């Protein structure tokens, strides 16, 4: 599997994962200063999913995301400086400060938006898939949903619609074991998201979401199917969330040592490094990490220095006309 | 120009736009009818009341998209499609069903543009029936357009005639914002003159359906006709009325309303959306804040009681505002 | 199976099916006179489901119904005279004329209401089941949903909640092949409702919904499970709808001769008669039919003669207080 | 009497009612938190912001019911349970989520009683957060109580203090009608004197939070405090205000409002629910129709613009009504 991707592609994948890691860990620190408005939900620990998915997509393909959307946004190519400014509520943000962490979007990059409504993305993604199918442009759409979100009616309806209309769409379920503080084992009746999806008549598999290659491979097959008119696929990616549900969550529902164990044994970046050990020198990856750190550093500096939106933006862009 | 029903005018608008623009698609339950049934080549329904009948035969299953019973996915899919290049005309059948499907409009489509910093648009139309008077009972007779109008980013249209229905629907389809298009079901068989060629009526321009001097009556949808009937009766006693049909609630033609009030000083607002926090209250607040100095008398509201719509025709008739109640309100204002 | 029920029970079951048949066929005729306000949706052809289910229930158990609710209401014990008056919009109706055909309800009989919202019943039924579970009164709740309704997000959410909370509830899916004019084969991705339900972690089976005994048996097992704390069950009942979706539907989506074939080969009352041939004389069942016809006749006469609701009822009963 | 936060007052109300009445149950996401996690005995959350923390420890999983993320089923289940013998207190977390769950309230619980001929009741409370000012952006800052108030059969409560929160919540739980209980999230940490024993504040009785002669200011929730701050500033210049907190939108204490207007003749209505068809418009229409003769000046509306709630604090501050804007509106009415 490792071999299907050439070295450039592997480096590119690692860079994206590194960007996500650096972005999130830095936000964790920045948030402690009290300068970030609102809620933020960090993606650390799940990098392999976003990148494993998006490395299969073209810039013209679409993704729909969740409240935990930074990783998806970075993986799909959103500008890190623009994202950072957005999180800080600045006019230079990708949404001009009007969306914030939970609503980062950039349609020009095929990013349909993070979403504050759990289960919101799948129905938007089938819409993007309908566009692709109708315009016959070979496009594909992907939605991200959590294990908690897999209980939301919107999600089931979207899956059914997708099989009925044979839409080029892929439903990614990021099963990180918790929805807020409630366990997957409790909230997901049947405890198997793939069984739900296959009940709607689509191929459904479960993969290790900490392994970039496992995700990449499953999605690659699904994308092929979608692009060639074979309809939707559902992929449940098992992974872990390292931080609290949102920054500030004390995580009382965790076992003692749970997080330390994750960092040690389930680090998607480490796992990636191990798998490419024979092809790529550690120093090359370290160099990427250093570049990325500098990039994120600069993004924070610029975001902090940037101006808040001017008053006239309050009324701008509600409607296209009127 | 031909004589067409309100129903035909709506279909006409969609068909003409579909011919002009390949990105216009129709999405909804039973928009064809027959998919998966035992008559594979028949267009069985065209929407449950046949409003879109004929479209499937002309455009086929790729552009007239039959869906399961799945309103959340219909609306969400339409929103996602609109943001990525289509101009969907989605049908919610009865607007009363917005309760199972509102998120895709309320938190998604309506907010995309603003929340994404002006970098997205969502040109979709959601069609659906509103209105009491059909003995359709509590869950199929409501007119939640006041709720839609309260959501920033949504446009809300309520045509009262075949002519308006066609022109406003074409304008709605061409509009780059999401539009809730509210069809009053008791008007479907109403006939009127409708131009054959495509035309638009701009959203946000009210129609003076009658001009007078004494009282301004403001009404939407089927109640425009009740208002006009009341105005006719009043005219016999020398009381003349402006009857204003705003046609669109959002945007609202504030100027037309305030100008009329400036001239008459007396206002009756008729509506069936809600006895509380409804369309009538919105207009009353507009007038009480921006047109207060014109007013010579209290604003009269002719509204249903604050109850669900009752099934029995005996009660439903009492529930709905009608010409007699409008007339009485106007006479009260004239002190007679 | 036939033998599990004693003769009185069999006669009782037949009487209920006969009542439903007579009620619906008579409404079909009465509707043609133009005197019935609003929409009506007839249940003819599906009698064995409602009765097969409700013969397993106690008066204190609850059911939640659909737009096609007359059969469920009769099977659960609602008064036929009150129902007929309701359909005609009269003050003597079970809902005092305020609900009509689509909203017949009688909580005192355990009938939570017909429902104009497709997919509305399951979440109400899990509520009734929660009451039973919380009050530990051994009660059971049943929801009815169509094949079309099986695509509604509300329904999936209710099923998941039921397994998570292990509620004493049974989800009945009446698969009559169509939702309005759209085929089950088209609208239900995967074409198997039981696979959907089992994806939520509950026992799920498919039975012949024209066979009272098949339905009765499946429900009997499910009720036992529910009453003894074993949680929810889903049962898909395959059946046919003889009339149009609503009265007035020309049924253009039907094959030529489809309805004639149903009446001939899939009549739940005939099937029942055949199965009890050895225990019950045809004349006994004929007598029931005659009694039922007279009863429905009287119900129509009284409903027609009854008064419409008085004006003061317009404002009555919106709130309990204020 | 103790000093308690708004948050504690809410929990207090629920806990006391649960002790008194076995049919009161709490239903919602993460009402305990920890179910299915790795700490089986810990009450991890008590609602996402900890409002109900402590209830699970006292009452256990049978009466504090953690649910999946499934708002339609939460509301529908609560409606069904209410109709059959429980008194559920369901949590929607953020009221903004009503878009995925409204049918169970709008078409079901709110209509049971009327549509079933008076033979059913649905004593449930749906709690949820409303309000901007928390940088929670467009989908977590809304106040759709005007929508709830427009639905016949629903009662709608918006407490502005810890004292009111407890008394109104106990009244809501005991009420036999469905109640939407709207908690303004920026008030959770507000402290105030709260009696220890259970008490009720009747639904439909407004609170005069300040009395004066010149201007009537009407506000709900956190804006009551902005209105009082404005009144304080105005008082320094000899302009005195009635500041009325209706506390419940449905029922609405029309008498209290009209009496005040009769005395002052000048009205400022402040609200954050909607710039169109909102709570303020409802009250303005009431006054313009039933209190017109008392009015000496146009009704002033202090509302957010008709836009989604922007994320950036720089914009959100401009978006929200505040004391300065209220003060300016009152001064305008006084012609100064
Ligand atoms: C409709 C809706 N319900 C509830 C919430 C509150 N909420 C935000 S995130 C979250 C948990 C989501 O869990 P999951 O889907 O597993 O995603 P994760 O946070 O684990 O990535 C909840 C309940 C919401 N934002 N929207
Ligand atoms: C939420 C909602 N969507 C759509 C409708 C319109 N409608 C009423 S009945 C029906 C078909 C239902 O089909 P099915 O569930 O199979 O039940 P059947 O009519 O076959 O008994 C539809 C689409 C509705 N009443 N409610
Ligand atoms: Mg999760
Ligand atoms: Mg069916």
TrEMBL record, chains B, D:
It comes from the Bacteria. It holds the Pfam family Transketolase_C. Coiled coil: none annotated. GO terms for molecular function: oxidoreductase activity. Keywords: Oxidoreductase. NCBIfam families: PRK09212.1. Residues 4-190 form the Transketolase-like pyrimidine-binding domain. The keyword Cell inner membrane does not apply. This is Alpha-ketoacid dehydrogenase subunit beta. InterPro entries: THDP-binding, Transketo_C/PFOR_II, Transketolase-like_Pyr-bd, Transketolase_C.
């Amino acid at each position: 599997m490792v071999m299907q991707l050439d070295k450039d592609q592997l480096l590119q994948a690692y860079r994206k994962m590194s960007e996500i890691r650096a972005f999130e860990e830095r936000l964790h620190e920045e948030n402690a200063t009290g300068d970030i408005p609102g809620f933020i939900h960090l993606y650390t620990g799940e990098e392999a999913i976003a990148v494993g998915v998006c490395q299969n997509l073209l810039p013209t393909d679409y993704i729909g995301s969740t409240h935990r959307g930074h990783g998806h946004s970075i993986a799909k190519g959103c500008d890190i400086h623009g994202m950072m400014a957005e999180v800080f509520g600045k006019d230079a943000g990708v949404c001009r400060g009007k969306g914030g962490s939970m609503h980062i979007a950039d349609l020009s990059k095929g990013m349909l938006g993070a979403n504050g409504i759990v289960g919101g993305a799948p129905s938007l993604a089938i819409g993007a898939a309908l566009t692709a199918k109708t315009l016959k442009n070979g496009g594909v759409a992907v939605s991200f949903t959590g294990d908690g979100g897999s209980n939301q009616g919107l999600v089931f309806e979207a899956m059914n619609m997708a099989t009925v209309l044979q839409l080029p769409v892929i439903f990614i379920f990021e099963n990180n074991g918790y929805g807020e503080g409630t366990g997957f084992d409790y909230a997901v009746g049947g405890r198997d998201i793939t069984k739900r999806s296959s009940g709607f008549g689509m191929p459904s598999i479960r993969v290790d979401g900490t392994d970039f290659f496992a995700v990449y491979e499953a999605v690659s097959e699904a994308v092929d199917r979608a692009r060639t008119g074979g309809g939707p696929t559902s992929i449940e990616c098992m992974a872990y969330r390292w931080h609290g549900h949102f920054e500030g969550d004390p995580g009382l529902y965790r076992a003692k040592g749970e997080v330390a164990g994750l960092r040690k044994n389930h680090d998607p970046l480490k796992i990636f490094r191990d798998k490419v050990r024979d092809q790529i020198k550690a120093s090359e990856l370290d160099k990427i990490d250093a570049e990325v750190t500098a990039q994120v550093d600069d993004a924070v500096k610029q975001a902090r220095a940037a101006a808040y939106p001017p008053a006239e933006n309050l009324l701008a862009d509600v409607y296209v006309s009127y | 120009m031909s004589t067409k029903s309100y129903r035909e005018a709506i279909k006409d608008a969609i068909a003409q736009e579909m011919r002009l623009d390949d990105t216009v698609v129709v999405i909804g339950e039973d928009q064809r009818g027959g998919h998966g049934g035992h008559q594979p080549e028949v267009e069985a329904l065209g929407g449950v009341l046949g409003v879109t009948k004929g479209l499937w035969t002309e455009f086929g299953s790729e552009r007239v998209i039959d869906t399961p019973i799945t309103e959340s996915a219909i609306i969400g899919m339409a929103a996602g499609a609109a943001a990525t290049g289509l101009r969907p005309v989605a049908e919610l059948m009865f607007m009363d069903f917005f309760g199972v499907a509102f998120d895709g409009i309320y938190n998604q489509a309506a907010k995309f543009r603003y929340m994404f910093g002006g970098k997205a648009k969502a040109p979709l139309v959601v069609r659906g029936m509103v209105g009491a008077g059909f003995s359709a009972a509590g869950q199929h007779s409501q007119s939640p357009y006041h709720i839609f109008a309260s959501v920033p980013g949504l446009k809300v249209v309520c045509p009262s005639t075949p002519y308006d229905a066609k022109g406003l629907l074409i304008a709605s389809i061409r509009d780059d914002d999401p539009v809730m298009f509210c069809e009053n079901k008791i008007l479907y068989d109403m006939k009127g003159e409708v131009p054959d060629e495509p035309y638009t009526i701009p959203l946000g321009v009210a129609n003076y359906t009658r001009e007078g001097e004494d009282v301004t009556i403001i009404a939407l949808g089927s109640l425009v006709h009740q208002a006009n009937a009341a105005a006719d009766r009043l005219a016999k006693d020398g009381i003349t009325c402006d009857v204003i049909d705003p046609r669109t609630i959002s945007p609202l033609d504030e100027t037309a309303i305030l100008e009329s009030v400036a001239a008459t000083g007396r206002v009756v607002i008729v509506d069936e959306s809600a006895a509380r926090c409804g369309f009538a209250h919105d207009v009353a607040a507009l007038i009480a804040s921006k047109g207060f100095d014109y007013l010579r008398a209290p604003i009269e509201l002719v509204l249903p009681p604050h109850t669900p719509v009752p099934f029995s025709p005996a009660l439903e008739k009492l529930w709905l505002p009608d010409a007699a109640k409008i007339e009485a309100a106007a006479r009260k204002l004239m002190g007679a």
